[in-house]
Amino acid sequence: MAQVFFVRHNGGSVWFDDLGPPWPKHACFADDHRASRLRAGLSERAQEKRKVRFGVVTETVVVEPGKSGRIVVQCSDGSIIDDEFDTTIDLTKYVGTLVVIEDEEDGAIRLKQI
User: pTM, whole model, 2 decimals?
Assistant: First the structure.
């Protein structure tokens, strides 16, 4: 059984066979204009930054509401991030969200929702 990634974006969702360019959409999805634009935009971002990693949030746990939580991310390079982050966002709605992972010079990780 092949691994696929469920991604929520702009009120819609899609399944990808892989995370990262060329963003191969799972065969069960028809290609519409919105999905094509999203994949093109993601590919452009990857070209802008050499070490861009994308990921999908697979699990969240609220540690302190409105202040911090544990976020698990399946990354495009095959790695998994499982860490606690300071965040004010509602983590209960974050599962399935596509993120760009930025590795800071001080070793910190920043997740940016796309």
Answer: 0.60
